């Protein structure tokens, strides 16, 4: 049996959700999974471990409505992927506006999600 020590449930992201660096307006990767407190990002741009970032991404709800999120995030860990130029990265959210935090919570808990 595997013991789960994560504080927040992580919902898998089935569709391709691109993440943009809000400061440079460039795509840095795509989301692998998402929780209220952070995300797994499959990075396609060079990122610096232990750095702070401002990211933007969009999620669609079950009705197809799109919500844009802008979050402050701290890069906790980075592991080079087998694909050239890619890395698995773990981020902790450090700043999420309250209205966006509510929308994120609803998206994560929506029926039909798969969790890791």
UniProtKB/TrEMBL annotation:
Gene3D superfamilies per UniProt: predicted glycosyltransferase like domains
Stored Pfam families: PilZ
Top-level division of the source organism's lineage: Bacteria
Domain PilZ: 6-109
Protein name per UniProt: PilZ domain-containing protein
SUPFAM superfamilies hit by this protein: PilZ domain-like (SSF141371)
């Amino acid at each position: 049996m595997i013991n789960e020590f994560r504080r927040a449930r992580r919902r898998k992201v089935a569709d391709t959700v691109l993440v943009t660096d809000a400061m440079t307006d460039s795509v840095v990767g795509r989301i692998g999974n998402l929780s209220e407190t952070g995300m797994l990002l499959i990075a396609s741009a060079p990122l610096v471990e232990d750095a702070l970032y401002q990211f933007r991404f969009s999620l669609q709800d079950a009705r197809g409505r799109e919500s844009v999120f802008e979050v402050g995030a701290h890069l906790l860990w980075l592991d080079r992927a087998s694909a050239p130029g890619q890395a698995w990265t773990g981020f902790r959210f450090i700043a999420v506006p309250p209205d966006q935090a509510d929308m994120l919570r609803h998206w994560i808990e929506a029926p039909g999600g798969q969790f890791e």
